[in-house]
């Protein structure tokens, strides 16, 4: 009895042997840093040895991982130049129109030049590739929006590769994972409402798909001065296709249902931290009135840079709900607008930073007015709060549409922020429509009761890949086909030709018969 216990304990010990894991985490967007950082930290908590390689593309961002070992690759001179030229702080996201190819395509290619310049820095960093190769990692995890990690994985040859997407798999990422975009019913990232029965709506979805793909595809084909990179990058899809698993930041219980594969694993919500108690000040703010609404547009849309008219409309609407406290994440609480607003509007609290997750988790918080970033929408659903979703750019329209589809509130066009009565009506609806609150509570309970948590899925998949290395059974054949084969275009062309010939033949035959009859009738 005792002995078998010992064997059991020994087995457990052997089974939970730590693996060596490399996480490639290019620092270009805070939400991506947070997502990948949480993956790394979850794996550290599961007992593994995790190293994060962090190329600094945008130096103003915070690290996402707090527990893994880190190797930084500093911004190269060229990246610095591009960063200064991008004027990230100056981009007017209110006016920015995703559907205008004249502004969207140059925006995308500037980003891709930025990624690629830093990639050159990573691959050129003295000794880095060699060092990582010698470590013989069991698993390498990478986000594929920036393809540099794919190139690096090819050079350092980990035992197995896991690709990830910090949002839903965006177009070319979907391609790398082997997913069908299902354009007739799966909305593009830039689309909030897709009417499956409407010709124009589906056409618009196809347009968005191709515009998005074209805009961001440049990162995958751009030639480098380094010949080894240009060769690698043309093959990024081929290299990524051999990944053991693809982890995507989607919560299937709220997402649009679309075609998937066995190796694609949804770990949406992994970023949501356990909520902490609010500090004393915020705690008393939430007790001021029976209802409290949080307004926050995330880390990229800066509230103080919104058009004056929009800010004034918010203020007017807020003052029309004196029985509701509004907490507004506003980056410059010391500017003239904020000071005047503070004096004129007693039910408004302006804060330069808010613990969003902790606020959403507090039962006194009523609802959320948000830009609909992936993390924000997931946290909103997880905490059982309804929202008014005001997408500004990128994947925010689709995330917002996903929330409306689930009855968790409404999508509101950013351009309608210029229209005060419309904004008032939307906030009134958010406060008064009971169905949003019922749906929010139900969906939050469903997410909590899911049979497998996102964290379990992550850890178990990574350990499986670490143990067995790369395996091909989950890799679909789609990667080895050209589009003619994939869409059976050759078969359709042959069948169509046969039918056409047959019809033509029948037509000719009947024409001969008819002529024959006429001749016969004439003869009679
Ligand atoms: C990277 O930059 C940091 C600070 O900017 C500096 O302390 C560090 O030495 C740099 N590392 C390398 C390898 O240049
Ligand atoms: C706030 O809620 C309490 C308890 O439900 C209620 O007695 C009070 O009338 C409410 N106040 C307002 C202003 O609605
Ligand atoms: C509440 O919202 C739902 C979903 O949009 C809608 O069907 C319903 O009519 C609304 N109810 C009220 C009272 O406005």
Automatic annotation (TrEMBL):
Q: Which family does it belong to?
A: Belongs to the UDP-glycosyltransferase family.
Organism, scientific name? Pristionchus fissidentatus
- What GO CC annotations are associated with the protein? membrane
Chief location bin: membrane
Example GO molecular function term? glucuronosyltransferase activity
**What is the protein's name according to its record?**
glucuronosyltransferase
InterPro entries (UniProt xref): UDP-glycosyltransferase, UDP_glucos_trans
Keywords carried by this UniProt record: Glycosyltransferase, Membrane, Signal, Transferase, Transmembrane, Transmembrane helix
Instruction: Give the EC number(s) under which this enzyme is classified.
Output: 2.4.1.17
- Identify its membrane topology class: Single-pass membrane protein
């Amino acid at each position: 009895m005792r002995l078998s216990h010992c064997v059991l304990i020994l087995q457990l010990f052997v089974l939970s042997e730590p693996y060596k894991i490399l996480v490639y985490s290019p620092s270009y967007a805070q939400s991506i840093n947070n997502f990948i950082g949480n993956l790394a930290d979850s794996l550290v908590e599961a007992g593994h040895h995790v190293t994060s390689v962090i190329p600094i593309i945008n130096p103003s961002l915070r690290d996402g991982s707090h527990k893994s070992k880190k190797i930084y690759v500093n911004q190269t001179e060229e990246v610095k130049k591009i960063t200064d030229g991008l004027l990230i702080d100056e981009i007017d996201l209110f006016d920015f129109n995703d559907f205008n190819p004249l502004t969207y395509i140059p925006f995308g290619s500037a980003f891709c030049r930025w990624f690629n310049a830093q990639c050159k820095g990573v691959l050129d960093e003295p000794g880095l590739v060699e060092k990582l190769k010698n470590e013989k990692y069991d698993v390498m995890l990478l986000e594929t929006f920036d393809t540099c990690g794919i190139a690096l994985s090819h050079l350092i040859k980990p035992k197995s590769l896991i690709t990830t997407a910090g949002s839903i798999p965006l177009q070319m990422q979907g391609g790398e994972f082997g997913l069908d975009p299902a354009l007739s019913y799966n909305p593009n990232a830039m689309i909030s409402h897709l009417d499956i029965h409407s010709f124009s709506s589906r056409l618009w979805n196809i347009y968005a798909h191709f515009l998005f793909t074209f805009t961001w595809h440049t990162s995958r084909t751009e030639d480098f001065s380094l010949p080894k990179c240009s060769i690698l990058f043309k093959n990024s899809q081929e290299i990524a296709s051999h990944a053991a698993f693809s982890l995507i930041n989607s919560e299937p219980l709220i997402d649009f249902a679309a075609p998937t594969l066995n190796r694609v694993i949804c770990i949406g919500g992994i970023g949501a931290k356990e909520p902490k108690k609010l500090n004393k000040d915020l705690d008393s703010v939430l007790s001021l009135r029976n209802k409290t609404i949080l307004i926050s547009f995330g880390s990229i849309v800066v509230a103080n840079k919104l058009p004056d008219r929009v800010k004034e409309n918010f203020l007017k609407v807020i003052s029309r709900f004196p029985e509701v406290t509004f907490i507004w994440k506003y980056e410059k609480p010391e500017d003239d607008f904020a000071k005047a607003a503070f004096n004129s509007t007693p039910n408004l609290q302006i804060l330069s930073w808010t613990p969003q997750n902790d606020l959403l988790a507090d039962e006194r918080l009523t609802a959320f007015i948000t830009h609909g970033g992936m993390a924000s929408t997931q946290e909103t659903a997880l905490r059982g709060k309804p929202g008014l979703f005001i997408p500004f750019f990128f994947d925010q329209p689709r995330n917002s549409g996903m929330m409306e589809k689930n009855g968790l509130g409404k999508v509101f066009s950013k351009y309608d922020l210029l229209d005060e009565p419309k904004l008032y009506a939307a906030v009134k609806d958010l406060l008064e429509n009971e169905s949003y609150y019922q749906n929010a509570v139900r969906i939050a309970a469903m997410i909590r009761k899911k049979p497998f948590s996102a964290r379990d899925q992550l850890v178990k998949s990574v350990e499986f890949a670490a143990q067995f290395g790369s395996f091909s059974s989950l890799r679909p054949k789609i990667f080895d086909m050209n589009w003619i084969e994939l869409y059976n275009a050759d078969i359709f062309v042959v069948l169509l030709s046969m039918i056409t010939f047959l019809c033509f033949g029948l037509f000719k035959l009947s024409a001969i018969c008819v002529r024959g009859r006429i001749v016969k009738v004439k003869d009679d």
